[in-house]
# Entry
Amino acid sequence: MATTTPIVPKHVAIVMDGNGRWATKRYLPRIAGHKQGVDALNRCVRACLERGIAVLTVFAFSSENWNRPSDEVSGLMDLLLLSLSREVSSLSGNGVRLHFVGDRLRFSEKVQRGLMQAERSTAANQRLVLNICFNYGGRWDIAQAAQKLASQGEAITELSLDRAMALAHVPDPDLLIRTGGELRISNFLLWQLAYSELYFSDKLWPEFDDSELDAAIAVFRTRERRFGQTSAQVAGPDNNPNSKVA
# Structure
């Protein structure tokens, strides 16, 4: 008897929320929660590789996060550099291609060099694209795309904007997961989430594991993705040739 491969989303996006609250509940400094968050991200990358997910995009640091206490911001920058030195080799060995998405101008030259080197050293990998959104905001993304087109004298249309967005190198997310119990997208991928399925988890990000990813994927499989069509059209023989679901 023939078996069918379970449907998995090609592109999963995650708002990794709850690191600080995880630490506070344990009477630890907030940066301890962010360190645990890096471990959770490593687990999630491995789980995506095992499940055949092609793209993972995570919200690591928003353009609004600069308003946090200065010691937490500087700790996050140090943690970024430490993670680059420790994790890039392992990620590359597992076929992960890194992209850092966001406005880099506010970073130190040392951080900018680290991001560029990580991208260059993983550029040939093809098992999983890992987009890390750092100093990113959805409104910034739309504005920078429009500015790019205007500077080139190109007409601003849906198609041209789409090609100028910071995530133009990957298809739009099929599934958005937000941890931490909050029910909002917080200026994340405002353009790209137009037809994404949304899943909200009460787990704090350091607690996120394979079972929670599988729960999100299980819910995703129950969703009917119509992309403006009717249910009858989706069920028909010519159902949605433009669907980005595997």
About this structure: Confidence is low (pLDDT under 50) at residues 240-246. The chain is about 45% helix and 15% strand.
